[in-house]
Description:
Subcellular location: Membrane
Largest sheet: none
Number of helices: 8
Distance between the termini: 45 Å
Radius of gyration: 23 Å
Region (Disordered): 1-43
Protein name: GPR1/FUN34/yaaH family protein
Helix content: 55-70%
Family: Belongs to the acetate uptake transporter (AceTr) (TC 2.A.96) family.
GO molecular function: acetate transmembrane transporter activity
Strand content: under 5%
Order of helices and strands: HHHHHHHH
Amino acid sequence: MATHETPNHTAAPPTDLEKDVHTSGADHYSGANGQNAAAAAHARHAGPFTRVADYRNMTEGEAQAFGGSLQPGLWKPYEHRKFANPAPLGLSAFALTTFVLSCVNLQARGVKAPNIAVPLAFGYGGLVQLLAGMWEMAVGNTFGATALSSYGGFWIAYGILLTPAWGIIATDGPYAANYSDHYSAVGFFLTGWFIFTTLLLLCTLRSTVVFFSLFFTLDLAFLFLACENYAANNGALTASRNLQIAGGTFGMLAAFLAWYCALAGLQDDSNSFFQVPVFHLPWSDKGKELRKAKSNRTVD
């Protein structure tokens, strides 16, 4: 008489190629419920309107780029961790602070003084974003840690620059002898951040449209605002004002793109009926994979 073996349905332990999918809050619950939620999240396949890939079926380097976790491209997934995704927090802090300062640069409702951005620069855009960057280190995201920590430092430095008590750009401060020189000094400060943002932009070329656009618009914002200060130092006030408007416009776009990426990182099946599209760049590996799958369906 033949003996029938009972199939073993126990899930295989995660391999070193499986990734903690930060973009799904369900993955970070503890206990049996968390394991079931993680399995359900992994079961969804990545597409242009979904955010979670089945990493169990991926080879090394096939994990798709996704702005919601501030991860720009192909990378080797790290071991499963119990940390939440810190990227939405950092992106939200960056977005709100940039939004307020961009409103001032656009002189919305006639507001010209940037002092309202100082408390945000110290508290939310500075401290909170810096802490989010530190947690990106804990979850193994080098790009996210570098970006969020650096821009957190930028906002703290900018808050110091705008604080009257420091007297850095005060009329009786270090530039009192030739006060117009402070415009060029601020221009140098912003030019440095333009260069740094360009370096980060180069790391997003194989990611998604929204993620690339975030750093592209931010890069242009730094460039135009730096040129605004150079023009002011030269006495070209009309050109300076136009450049400030351009910088404020691109800063506003960067703020909303950062909020978009933050939303993408916050959404999952437990809290939303839909998931915002990530729009993979056509030359990225994920974009090629999606086109190939679409072509195969057309042939069939």
